[in-house]
Amino acid sequence: MSLDTGFERLALDLDDPFTIARGTQETATNVVVRVSDGEHEGIGAAAPSEHYGETPRTVEAVLPDLLTIVEEVGDPHALARIERRMNEVVRDNPAARAAVSIALHDLAAKHLDVPLYRYWGLDSESTPTTSFTIGLDSTERMREKTESAVAVGHTVLKVKLGTERDREIIEAVRAEAPDVRLRVDANEAWTPHEALGNIDALADFDVEFVEQPVPAENPAGLEYVHDRSALPIAADESCVTLADVPRIAERADIANIKLMKCGGLGEAKRMIHTARAHGLEVMCGCMVESNAAIAAACQLAPLLDYADLDGSLLLADDPYEGVPIRGGDIDLAGVDGPGTGAHPVEGRP
Length: 349
Ligand code: MG
Description:
CATH topology of the largest domain: TIM Barrel
Bound molecules: magnesium ion
Largest sheet: 8 strands, parallel
Order of helices and strands: EEEHHHHEHEHEHEHEHEHHEHEEEEE
Distance between the termini: 26 Å
Structural class: alpha/beta
């Protein structure tokens, strides 16, 4: 089969500047990848993260080599072969590889005329509700963002922390939203000692779990916190690729897997099953990314305990539609058509 490929930059405006402990993001740039067999077109996207060494430029620099492999193999169903060869050619660059992996999975499922989750045989009824993220801001703005999120039906919120006023923030958010499920993400901001003090305080506000309390460069610190924590610990920056999963098994309770960290859907599934074998619960997260990528992560939802797939919900205007998410409910069966469900909003290029 002959496959045509291409890619283009996608500039995305955010609803609000997105701030975490490490810094603020005003806009996001994704790179959309297309793979066509002449009849169907598979769509994917890379959401590169500088924290993991990628930018739109590095993605664009390696995509020609990755897409050459796709064209040489010439079979969208040869997913394992293509993912393995991509990994041999560029060992890093996970977001670039993920974009190609997503586009190929989309095309393979379209070729068989089934949604991707059905291609995998997964149960659309058992998807966790995705959280909606409340980024760092003034405490009053975070209270307002909480009010707006609850007003549109969100029942699970993830609150970014890692400031001097973490206790004030969680108190304000909890007062505004007494009934929602609350999680927090410190994005590596605390020392192990600070983390234990903060976690004790957070436990009074019925917080479900605490994500990445301490820096990934301090695995002993993460283990110290995990051994003494009043709340479950999720590992995000400490859980990048498959090899990290056994390493975090004694240092965390939940593995936060992201396509843009691990490099593709095949690797994400291996991480999910490996995490379970090590007694970890599994979450799938995302970057600030378009439905051109998020729709693929949503297909994994039946395999997850927790979903954090709000990347497109943080955008002012996503030119791609994907799996419908209303009030955080990931409606896989609501996708009209085969593949991941990603398609351009009507009337858009
Ligand atoms: Mg995180």
